[in-house]
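A sample follows:
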Amino acid sequence: MLLIFAAVMISVSAMVFTALDRVGHYANQLDEERSREAVTGALQTFRHQIRATLHDYAAWDDAAGHIYQQRDIDWIERNFGEMSLNSDLFDVVIVLDPVGNSLSAHSDGVPIKGLDQYVTPGVLALFEPLKQLPEDALPEVTGFVETVKGIAAVGIGVIRKTSGERMGKPSGNHYVVLMRHLAGETIERLSRAYVLPGLHLVPPSSDLSHRVAILGPNDQPIGGLAWVPRSPGDASLAQVRPLVWCAVAMIAIYMLLLFVSGNEALSRMSADEAAAVKLSLTDRLSGLPNRTGLFAGMADLINLAQRDGKDVALLYLDLDGFKEVNDAYGHATGDLLIRSVSAGLRVLVGDEPVLARLGGDEFAVAFIGYDVQKNAVELAERVLDFLGEPITIGERIAVIGCSIGLAFSRRGLVQGEELIRRADMAMYRSKEEGRGRWTLYDPVMDDEREERNLLELDLRAALDRQEVTVAYQPVVDACSLRVTAVEALARWTRAGHGPVSPEVFIPVAESTGLIDMLGLHVLRTACRTLVAWPDLALSVNVSPGQFRDPAFVGHVADVLTQTGIHASRLTLELTETYFIQNPSRARKTLDLLRQTGVKIALDDFGSGFSSVGYLRQFRFDRMKLDKSLVDSICDDSRAIEMLRATVALAQSLEMPVTAEGVETEGQAVALQKAGCDLLQGFLFGKAVPAEEIDQLRERGPLIRLPISA
């Protein structure tokens, strides 16, 4: 019996220990697989972070201007090189010209002397796929390379405008190279974030099984990340084995302990996996859910809405003044602003709605309920009030505001992606209508966008076929009432639709980038026509889009040379919008234009800010009064006084004055007495083809009035 009992005990013990060994081995395997996936995810996230940072620094209007146009080394050093000091985003930044020479190279804020220590064969290998990318592809590549400081995630991108426009030919591209090395502190952060004890770098020749290889540009291992296995199965066995030796009678207890121990190990694994998933759904700058997190949250809301018969509301927010703050104070201040806005929105929105940052300066708020439209409108008003107040950023104060689009999913019938598209469209309508407001999505917006797209295609084709014509409105001398100048205005008859108002197709041209082509076509055509009118001057409107083009001054000079028109006969009319937004850049462009000999007129004075400071600062050659100052001068004594004061102001600054929108003889008399030099309006003629201008020139005075000073 004793032998049988012993045999049974031995058999049972053997079976128990065999089972335990298998369980322990399986737990170790699960932990190793989880750790391997976590390390792989950490490397991918590390690489994605350098890609996101690269895009912010490569697609940057100011960088493109200071590198391609001015070659401002001091600016490059401040905004690229010095940013590598104590940065969590990158520790090495190199700016290269088209032939590979360094414009700026810094490591941890210190200039790099041996460039080949960082521009290694691995880095050079990344340039080949970058140069072979098609023109419409995102000109950025990332990968892992080995430098003198160790292994780094590197991103290389073509420096360009934020819109994606490249300012040079492919052979003239400049590049920014960002590196972030897997240094000790960085690896320690990854170890804590992904719960990977003992995470460390190993050479590519390492034979450790607990490691993930880091591949270089040629898919050859350049190193690896290894970790110390936690072996939860072995730990569990160590805890329960003494109990089994004590007595077989304790097997039940032993099995219970094994179950508890295994459950703890699985719980830790589940917690680690949940942390990794949460990290992938979170925006690292604001701490809010990212775009992927928003999609996940909205999917849950849609499911709840369909189940409970509720509605889903989505607010799509875009900060109105963020780009100006970012450009004026730098990315670091812009990041602080994003954090401040995120914190404020989190308090304002509360815990129940889904609040996400979609990237850049865009946010979204989604929630569910029975009366969501009313609640959404109230929330939109509160957000507008909050963002309309000054925000303190360190020692600076910024006023930004925002534009909001609202969209709703009744009973959850509209899916999340479509709901975001609708809210985004409504948000852009808010921007078009003046910003600082909210707009509710309307299905008509889809039809309008489709019509706008078709209008853009037809306008592009019309410009290619030279179907956009130029009409000329006479401008008369206030004393003689004879034609002394003309204003060139674009006219377009759309095939199959008839004439299109400039108020319709000019904004389309500005928003689609066609304004440069359109404006140059009008300028060239008008100057060619002016050759036949040696006694007349010409004025041409210039949009802010043209004025921002670095090549604009060169285009004007080329047209004057090609047509033989003396520069003093040409006046370019600009509104105050661009001068307010970019005064320093506007002043530089004005100085270059004046060197060509053309005159500059401030158009539509009296319709906007009408700042005396801007008149004194930019010293325009002519002031053009807006029609709003002319309309009521015959009926309102205060309007006459305002007109006289405005003309007196211009005369004190030695600026001749043109009054536009003159439609009655009484207005003409009042404007002459007020001291205006030139008059323009329907009273003297609408915009007409060039042939009719010849007839007007032969008539002498266009009207007969008892006008006297």
In short: The chain has 24 helices and 25 strands. Residues 2-58 form the longest helix (57 residues). The chain has a mean pLDDT of 86. The longest strand covers residues 483-494.
